[in-house]
Amino acid sequence: MPTLIVLEDPTDWELDLPDTQVVSARAYLTDPLWSDRKQTKVFNLCHSFRYQSLGYYVSLLAAARGHRPIPSVSTMQDMKSLTIVRSLAGDLGSLIEKSLQGIKSSEFTLSIYFGRNVAKSHDALARALYNLFPAPLMRAQFTYDEGWSLESIRAIPTDEVPAAHKTFFLDAARDYFTGKRPSGSRKAARFQLAILHDPDSTEAPSNPRAMKKFVKAAEQVGFGVRMLTKEDYGRIVEHDALFIRTTTSVNHYTYRFARRAANEGLVVIDSPEDILRCTNKVYQAELLQRHGIAIPSTMVVHKGNVDRVPRELGLPCVLKQPDSAFSHGVIKVETEAELLEHTTRLFASSELLVAQRFLPTAFDWRVGMFDRRPIYCCRYHMAKKHWQIAKSEEGGKRSYGRVEWIARADAPAFVLDTAVRAANLIGDGLYGVDLKEIDGRAYVIEINDNPNIDGGLEDQELDDELYLRIMQGFLRRVQDRQLQRGGA
After folding, report:
1. pTM for the complete prediction?
2. How do residues 109-127 score in pLDDT, each as one tens digit?
3. What are the extents of the domains in the chain?
4. Which fold is adopted by the domain 297-358?
């Protein structure tokens, strides 16, 4: 995606950067050469962002043109409100205290240049504030009164960078624009894809082999690719699409990334709606029953009907925390005493639980869905001497049953049909539908967002074509969105 740096006076910018043009604010606002451009990132370095100033209109019209302004008008407005500033920065209390613990005065000014500070000890705080308020150059003011608090934050122009900071500022800008080029890109790509991952996760939805194939497929269809981690929240706005490849949850940074990306107009998989719907088993129980999808006999359990569970479902039964994942929070209940014990504990975090009749099988079917079609089919076998596909061992280790890929043409039609009907109730994203096969009938256990796609496992039928289909779907969505905005 081409990049513009906009200032009142272009001579204020001293760097010559690849794939980057410097333009005056007035030219950007009035010259059709710039207004007619598509797919452009606009870094607004104007002197003032006050209401109806040149700087204000640069970001306002950039948004109207389908460009990506940094800062956005909403970021400008957020900075003006101390209430909003403190609300957004509310989770940074411990980071602020840690960063400023050695400061002796009662006031401190933090300069932020492209998410960095001249002092390495303040880099984490600078990056966190940039993530909350994405603006190229900022200054944050803190005061101390039995603890440090953020008093204000504002965007600054280049001429407010002190002479002592000038070299660092130029280095930070150079690193920002050239130091993290999209992975493997040899030329400027028309669209930019961000892949959110957690390199330290032991339960990532895709192994390194699969991640490399996703990147390769994305580049094949024309994306520039950047790998993001949870520290890169402020860089979401630089992209056209976000692909989440780390385990999702509502009260989690993955949901915040998805929400931010969706609000900024990016194509997002997993979308915030998919995360909400797929990570809550109460929602799914209601949805699937309402639409006549076969599921095990199910009860939504509350404090007033726990005693009915043994009578209606029998024992053993399966008790589920609504937001359980990776078999965590899913309990096989053998006795009424165990039922009371586990429901009492789980009610501390959720008013509603899900209980289901226990249906023992040697394996679960997993049908991968994308764009409302099956893209892979597997049998997930139960862990050895266990009733689930994952078993927790001593010392926190986990063991898993084997994964057996099945050609979609060889899978029972009723399994695929049930999976399609269930997933299509959620949307057209990327899902993994878990089902049990009993007496020639398929029962949906759950619909997962962020499904596993591991190299050598789920991709065995389609191989590279699997990754290509997903990236082609991303590209089509991005292009459709551009057409809706009047782009090309």
Report:
1. 0.79
2. 999 999 999 999 999 999 9
3. 297-358
4. Dna Ligase; domain 1 (3.30.1490)
